[in-house]
Amino acid sequence: MSPLVVSLIAIIGVLVIVIVAFLVTAATQASGAAAPTDESASEGAPPLPDLARRDAADPTALGDVDAPVVIVEWADYRCPFCGVFARETQPTIIAEYVEQGLVRIEWRDLPVFGDESTLAAAAGRAAGEQGLFWEFHDAVFADAPERGHAELPRERLIEIARGIGVPDLVTFETDMDDPTLQGLVQADLEEGYSLGVTSTPIFLIGQTPIAGAQPLEAFRQAIELELDRVGR
Asked: Which residue among 43, 138, 203, 222 is least packed, with the fewest CB closer than 10 Å?
């Protein structure tokens, strides 16, 4: 058993929240931290909190509201590793699991890279108000650099919205400044911080946490573990 798994088991036994903090620390050190295994998840650990919202009206969620497994993702539009996951891994998860009704993805804004991150999160919400959250999400990450943080000033966000066909750009700009939408971003951020999540990307796949833009197979393993856990 690897030292990471041993540490994870010990932390779970003391306090659930610290698990996520531990994984966040691993993610800041490298994007190659190992995903928890079936062995680590089955040795008497208390269950993690169910953070899935399953809100059918949530524009930042993708997939069947009753899917047996929910992936909660904390991410920042300026995070390069979030971009790696969005470009290289998420499309396959969508094709293999979301479109089959097995997995639902729920986005959580965690803007940790400054004011442009916060504005981009509000812009994503504004696009979502016009039914184009995921199109905005994909467009931002499609052009994201592999290293460093994307430059996302207001003008660039409007350009992206125009490029994905947001029908009412005036309303889009107004919504970026809407205190209600900004409050939703802040609520996600505060929820993440309350769990010890201070870096991105972090995932909770059912009861299985993953830190960083892991290879696709790590996500497949976690999803299959959770599908087995719920008997699907």
From this structure: 43
Q: Which range is least confidently modeled, 3-17, 103-117, 149-163, 203-217?
A: 3-17
How does DSSP classify residue 94? I
Question: How many beta carbons lie within 10 A of that of residue 211, not counting itself?
Answer: 29
User: How far apart, in Å, are the Cα atoms of 179 and each of 116, 175, 186, 187?
Assistant: 16, 8, 10, 12
Q: Helices 115-129 and 154-163 sit at what angle, rounded to 10 degrees?
A: 30
SS3 for 56?
coil
3-229 has CATH 3.40.30.10 classification: yes
Q: How confident is the model at residue 149 (pLDDT cuts 50, 70, 90)?
A: very high
What pTM, to 2 d.p., does this model score?
0.83
Within 30-165, residue ranges assigned H as helices are 38-41, 80-84, 90-93, 115-129, 133-142, 154-163
Look at residues 142, 16, 164 and name the one whose alpha carbon lies nearest to residue 85.
142
Q: How many residues does the chain have?
A: 232
